[in-house]
Design a protein that fits this description.
Blueprint lengths: L1 H17 L6 E10 L10 E6 L5 E6 L5 E7 L4 E6 L6 E4 L6 E9 L18 E3 L4 E4 L11 H5 L5 E3 L5 E3 L6 E4 L11 H7 L5 E7 L14 E6 L6 E11 L3 E12 L2 E26 L2 E26 L4 E25 L5 E27 L7 E25 L6 E21 L3 E24 L4 E4 L5 E19 L3 E19 L2 E22 L2 E12 L3 H4 L10 E3 L8 E12 L4 E21 L5 E23 L4 E18 L2 E19 L4 E10 L3 E2 L2 E2 L3 E12 L4 E8 L5 E9 L3 E10 L2 E11 L24
Parallel strand pairs: 1-7, 12-14, 29-32
Antiparallel strand pairs: 1-4, 2-3, 2-5, 5-6, 8-9, 9-13, 10-11, 13-14, 15-16, 15-42, 16-17, 17-18, 17-41, 18-19, 19-20, 20-21, 21-22, 22-23, 23-24, 23-25, 25-26, 26-27, 27-28, 28-30, 30-31, 31-32, 32-33, 33-34, 34-35, 35-38, 36-37, 37-40, 38-39, 39-42, 40-41
Length: 806
């Protein structure tokens, strides 16, 4: 099978490459010279434009010696455009005949003015370092037309995706994902599901905010991931249609649409994905030491899911100073699971004392929506001075059902049972933001109020053989409400000088919590205040490099998935539950980074963070050898790490991208009366190489490795990933056909992790689908003339965490 697949890939790439039509070309070359000192200028953007349409046909950067060379199809009239920061741009008509046109020396002179916009399609750096964040330009990545948004995350500095599609920021799952600077219902349950169904072409750029300024809520221990989606529209309309089929994950389809008519503008997208049921094997092994016994579970499980999502934004420009925008987002996911497992328990003499076979059929539904409105007021004296008033309502609901039946029993009397849980949250948020960008100083201030109501209702029904019916077990039913109100004020200042940019601020937050339980009947109230500082400074070393330092405190408030007391016993030997007694954790983070964007881009970042009451996933065993997983504030978490991210043009047509991280982790804490400590290294490296032909054919290859991550009581899985892709522009470059093959050499890979304590050891492994083939199509339509004006401020509730590893 491997030989057949390799032969297919080799022939596919070869025949497409040689099938490109040859046509007459002309080559324009020359050398860029600084007028003042008569020295060569390197890395100047040079582009050839069609003289009639003013559209860029080919562009490149001048070499170290100032030389450049551009080859374009013959038969058209061209003009040469040169652009370089700090110099006057230059446009030269290309005159001459023959195959090669030598422009000889092209002189550029320094300019004291800000660089004006020039209509060229020049190579843009994929990465950009700002005073408090790194950004990745997805639209500048040629593979954005062929992969999903989740695949694109692999390439973004400081981010990684593990084998089970959990996203990490600097190795941590404690962060917040925003869409266009705002929390969205699209990410309410599992962002990986949405990003897997969404094409990367939906995204303009991805920001990794490692030192969030004071205007952001203080949550997110590792930082904030802000995904900026396409939203520029025209007088008229434009859009795109994306679709494809993956041999493992099923189909996905997506529509983007932007419309503008006068002062009214609309942008939106909608999509869906469907994964058919796929069955794979799993194994759970536990060894208990007091008394000595062992537990073994082997079996298979399957999952099928459907995801639907939509995002909409409407904008009305009342006049040049008054702007109204409204947003509406919705997401729904349905999951059906089925597992079959055989459980066997042995004593100290390795004799079986209990065994049974379990069939578990489950369904889950999760959905979310949010509705928001923003009013933005500008000022005549300074149009960049803005006052924004915002309101948003958010709602998410989740249901989970399990139907568990047992047979082949040996010394096992637990009756069949059914579980049901309904949980969710409602939020009302109001916010006021003010920004005044002066010549050197930028002032920001504002206030916010979040009224959040969480709930959980669960039922446990046991089968009564006498009546042949399921009967409610009231002792295991539970209702839980959790009300959290957050009030905050912030003030921040940014100073921007010739070489230095400094940003600092304070955020004051007051949190009030009230919770009620029915089992046992109880309630509690608590309140706490936090003053959260943030500081960042950037030193520009030259026109292409900078040095950045940042410090911030972040708060991790437990979310409903960590707090929910519902006991999931769909596997009654390995149960999981939340912990409503969790307290917020406070993290301190320091970072120092260097960025250079001369030829390609490179960013090297070192960071150190510590939290003294971290929320950890912990495991304990009861007297009847039932393993329970939950969350607890158990102790200290210290991280020291380095990130290296490189995007480098190997040739004019070949590019290399490297995203890597190495962390040293120290964990220690006390749980269930036992003290635990663990430390070690963890990290990842992802590489991407691509080659683009003049005809629009594009070939790419991804290789990646993600190590085992350090947990308080053990380690999780590792994996290696390899992916090969090809795409071809068609229909006058409005369409793209793409093909990719992931991990072609093996159908499955094993994902395993272990837990080790003085009382027990547990080993879990899952066979995960590894090989997949994807065929997709993208088509763009419409015409652009001008862009929609949108509010520059809005609500982003980034103050709670989700739970689990994601």
């Amino acid at each position: 099978m491997k030989k057949i697949l390799l032969s297919f890939l080799t022939n596919f790439f070869f025949f497409i490459a040689i099938a490109q039509n040859t046509q007459p070309t002309i080559t324009v070359k020359g050398t860029v010279i600084d007028t003042a000192n008569n020295q060569a200028l390197s890395y100047v953007t040079t582009a050839l434009q069609d003289s009639k349409t003013q559209l860029s046909v080919r562009s490149t950067l001048s070499k170290e010696d100032g030389s450049f060379e551009l080859t374009v199809p013959a038969g058209k009239s061209y003009q040469l455009v040169l652009v370089f920061v700090g110099y006057k741009s230059k446009t030269i008509a290309v005159n001459g005949t023959g195959v090669v046109i030598n422009m000889d020396k092209v002189f550029l002179s320094a300019s004291n003015k800000t660089l004006d916009a020039v209509s060229i399609s020049a190579p843009k750096p994929l990465m950009k370092q700002e005073v408090d964040r790194l950004s990745y330009d997805v639209q500048a990545d040629p593979e954005s037309k062929t992969i999903t948004a989740l695949d694109m995350i692999h390439k973004v500095p400081l981010l990684s995706v593990d084998a089970t599609d959990n996203i990490k920021l600097r190795g941590s799952g404690d962060y917040k994902i925003l869409i266009n600077g705002k929390e969205s219902a699209l990410m309410a349950k599992n962002p990986s599901d949405i990003l897997k169904a969404m094409p990367a072409s939906n995204i303009v750029k991805i920001e990794v905010i490692t030192t969030p300024p004071a205007k952001y809520d203080a949550e997110g221990l590792a930082g904030i991931i802000n995904i900026i989606t396409t939203k520029n529209a025209a007088q008229g309309y434009n859009g795109s249609i994306n679709g494809g089929y993956n041999s493992v994950y099923g189909y996905r389809a997506n529509l983007n649409l932007s419309i503008k008519e006068g002062k009214l503008g609309y942008t939106g997208y909608a999509g869906s994905g469907n994964r058919p049921a796929r069955s794979s094997d799993f194994e759970n092994l536990s060894s208990f030491f007091n008394p000595v016994s062992a537990l073994s579970q082997t079996g298979s499980r399957s999952n099928a899911n459907t995801n639907k999502y939509a995002g909409n934004e409407l904008s009305y420009e009342i006049d040049t100073l008054n702007l109204l925008t409204g947003t509406f987002n919705i997401y729904q996911g349905d999951n059906a699971s089925n597992s079959s497992q055989f459980t066997s328990q042995t004593d100290a003499n390795n004799l079986v004392n209990q065994s049974y076979h379990t069939q578990n059929k489950g369904t889950a539904n999760y959905k979310g929506s949010d509705l928001g409105v923003n009013y933005q007021l500008g000022f005549k004296a300074n149009k960049n001075e803005l006052l924004t008033a915002s309101y948003k309502f958010s709602k998410s609901d989740n249901t989970q059902n399990s139907d568990v039946t047992n047979d082949q029993r040996l010394n096992y009397t637990t009756p069949n049972y059914r579980q049901y849980n309904s949980s969710g949250s409602k939020e009302h948020t109001t916010q006021l933001d003010y920004i005044d960008p002066l010549k050197v100083l930028t002032i920001e201030a504002g206030g916010k109020m979040i009224l959040r109501d969480n709930y959980s209702n669960s039922n446990y029904n046991m089968f009564n053989a006498a009546t042949n019916q399921y009967v409610d077990n009231a002792l295991q039913d539970n209702s839980f409400t959790y009300n959290q109100d957050v009030y905050s004020l912030y003030n921040s200042y940014q100073l921007k000088f010739t070489k230095w940019t400094v940003k600092g601020g304070l955020r004051l937050e007051r949190t009030n919590v009230h919770a009620d339980f029915t089992t046992p009947k109880s309630s509690f109230d608590q309140g706490y205040s936090n003053l959260v500082p943030s500081f960042s400074a950037q030193r520009t070393l030259n026109t292409t490099s900078s040095l950045t330092f940042g410090f911030t405190q972040r708060i991790q408030r437990p979310g409903i998935y960590q707090l929910n007391p519902f006991v999931d016993s769909s596997n009654n030997k390995y149960i999981s539950t939340g912990n409503p007694n969790l307290r917020p954790a406070i993290n301190n983070n320091f970072e120092l980074s260097y960025g250079n964007f001369a030829k390609g881009s490179i960013n090297i970042s070192t960071h150190y963070s510590f939290v003294n009451n971290s929320i950890q996933n912990v495991v304990a065993v009861s007297a009847n050898d039932v393993t329970t997983t939950t969350y607890a504030n158990v102790g200290q978490n210290h991280n020291l790490g380095i990130d290296v991210n490189i995007n480098y043009p190997l040739t004019k047509k070949m590019n290399l991208n490297i995203n890597s991280e190495l962390l040293q982790v120290w964990l220690k804490g006390t749980y269930n009366g036992s003290f635990y400590t663990n430390s070690g290294q963890q990290g990842h490296i992802f590489t991407y190489t691509d080659y683009k032909f003049d005809s629009g054919l594009h070939l790419g290859m991804n290789l990646g490795f993600d190590s085992r991550y350090v947990l308080l009581q053990g380690r999780d899985n590792w994996y290696f990933n390899n992916n090969y892709s090809a795409s071809k522009e068609v229909l006058n470059k409005k369409g793209t056909i793409s093909l990719s093959v992931a991990n072609p050499f093996s159908k499955f890979n094993k994902l395993d992790f272990f837990t080790k304590t003085p009382d027990f050891e547990t080993y879990n492994s899952n066979q995960n689908y590894y090989r997949s083939i994807y065929l997709g199509f993208n088509y763009k339509f419409g015409k652009l003339n001008s862009e929609i004006k949108k509010a520059q401020r809005g609500i982003n509730n980034d103050d709670t965490s989700g739970g689990g590893r994601n």
